[in-house]
Design goal:
Order of helices and strands: EEHHHHHHH
Structural class: mainly alpha
Helix content: 55-70%
Distance between the termini: 44 Å
Number of helices: 7
Number of strands: 2
Oligomer: single chain
Strand content: under 5%
Shape: globular
Radius of gyration: 18 Å
Length: 141
């Protein structure tokens, strides 16, 4: 048994073939995400482009942070994360396209856009949640 596998490759195999950070020994998460989405091992350049794309999408709207701040600090972190992800719905590209009458064969494009937005924003929201729940509440800029 291989254990967990990504596109038929064990995690050990993935770590061997996927791009790593300079001087690093572990595959980059963006490289694993690329593999999961496309089924192909990305080049270093493709991983860099994906990383840049995710960074460009990572800004969390103020309404989401205000929603988070309104929750009691004792709220379970996963509940806080769920609430924040739901609060992102107002900016959903899928919702806008659907309400605008997009064709069914276009659904995948805006669903992918929303998925990339979520993947980019989750670490930022998680950092806010961690700091407010377990630390001093101050998030570095």
């Amino acid at each position: 048994s291989k254990g967990i596998a990504y596109r038929g490759r064990s995690l050990f195999e993935c770590n061997k073939v996927l791009p790593k950070a300079p001087g690093g020994e572990c595959a980059l998460p963006e490289a694993a995400f690329w593999l999961l989405l496309t089924g192909e091992v990305p080049t270093d350049s493709e991983v860099q482009q994906l990383t840049q794309e995710l960074h460009a999408r990572s800004a969390v709207p103020q309404n989401v942070l205000a929603t988070l701040a309104s929750l009691p600090k004792e709220t379970h972190p996963m509940t806080q994360l769920s609430v924040c992800m739901l609060a992102l719905q107002k900016d959903s590209k899928f919702t806008a396209g659907y309400q605008g009458g997009m064709k069914k064969n276009e659904y995948w494009e805006v669903a992918l856009e929303d998925a990339l937005d979520l993947v980019a924003k989750i670490p930022v929201v998680a950092a806010h949640i961690y700091r407010r729940t377990f630390k001093d509440g101050k998030v570095p800029a």
